[in-house]
Amino acid sequence: MQIIISMQRKKNKTGKADLHIHLAKSAPEELLRYVQNNTDLDVIAITDHNSLENALKVKAEWERGDYRFEVILGEEISAKEGHILGIFLKESIPAGLSVAQTIEKIHEQGGLAIAAHPFQKMKLSRPPDLALMDGIGLEVLLKEGKKFDAIEVINATPTLSQENFRAKHFNKKFLHKAETGSSDAHIPEAIGRAYTLFAGKNSEDLRLAIQQCQTQPVMGKWTISALVKLLFFLLPDFLHIAFFYVRFFLRLNAKNKN
Q: Could you say which of 97, 172, 186, 255 would form a disulfide bridge with 101 (CB–CB 3.0 to 4.6 Å)?
C-alpha cells in the first residue's frame, strides 16, 4: 500500500513535508540518514527551541551530502504566551516576545509563522530548565490568530489527539488558515509520523501552498518500537518532573510544620 501511495504522489507531483523536527540528542548526519532511508519526505524543517544553531548544523551537513529532500531553517520560539514555529528563517528570534511581536519578527525576514500545538497548555508548574509543550491557547488564537500563516492541527505526539481535534475545528470555523501536520520529533524514529501534503515537490512549492492555504495535514502511524524509543527518550524528563514535585511538596510540608 505504501508503494502504491508513493507512486501516486510522484505521478501527481504531491510533496510531503515535516515542519516540526528537533535535532535534540541526535547527530545531524544521523537525522539526515534516517530521513533519506526511512521516509519519503520531500522537505523537512529543523525547529529546535529558541535557537537556530542546530538547524544551521543540519543544513550544513545536508549541503555536504547528496540528499533527495530539502532542509529549511526553523525555530520553535517561546513567545510570552506560548510556542510558535518560524520556518524559512535567516536569523534566530529571541524568546519572551509577545505573539504579535514574534510573528512580526518572523515575517520581517521572509519567514512563515505557524501556531504549534496551540491547544496544548501545561497547566502545572515545571522545572525552570525544562522546555515543555506550551501552545498559545484559545484566548490568544482569538486575538492574534489571523496573523499566523498556518495552524499546526496535527501534532504526532501520541497524547495530543483531543488537542489536535480542537485545533482543526477552531481553524475551520474561525481562522481559515493553512493547516499543517508535523511530527514534533525529538528522536529520528518519530520523523514523518505526521506530515503535510502540498502541491509540488520543493520548499518554494511548500511556501506557496501555505500562503495559498492549499495544504493537507496527515496523521501517520506509530510503530511499537518507535513508541518504546520515545518513552525511553522522555524518561529522564519524567523523572526530572517527578523529583521537582517531590522536592516541592517536601519543602511545603516542612514550611507548614514550622
A: 97
* CB 103 within 8 Å of CB 74: no
The per-residue pLDDT for 19 is 98
Radius of gyration of the chain (CA): 19
Cβ-contact 51, 94 below 8 angstroms: no
* pTM for this entry: 0.85
Instruction: Of 88-97, 124-133, 155-164, 225-234, give the lowest mean pLDDT range.
Output: 124-133
Beta partners for 195? 218
Q: How far is CA 71 from the centre of its chain?
A: 14
How many Å apart are CA 175 and CA 141, to the nearest integer?
A: 9
Q: Are 129 and 112 in contact (CB under 8 A)?
A: no
Count the neighbouring beta carbons within 10 Å of the beta carbon of residue 65. 11
DSSP SS3 for 241: helix
Residue 11 grid coordinates: 505521478
Counting the structural domains of the chain, the total is 1
Core vs surface per residue 142-160: b (16+ CB within 10 A) or e? eebbebbbbbbbbbbbeeb
Rounded Cα–Cα distance for residues 240 and 229 (Å)? 18
Of 160, 212, 201, give the one whose Cα is nearest residue 181: 160
Give CA separation, 173 vs 78, 112, 122, 176, 212, in Å: 26, 22, 25, 7, 18
* Tens digits of residue pLDDT in 103-139: 999 999 999 999 999 999 755 544 444 455 689 999 9
Give the pLDDT confidence score for residue 129 in this predicted structure: 47
Residue 236 pLDDT: 63
CATH number for the domain including 7? 3.20.20.140
Range of the domain at 214: 2-257
219 Cβ contact list (under 8 Å, min separation 6): 154, 156, 164, 181, 193, 194
> Residue for cell digits 502545572?
124
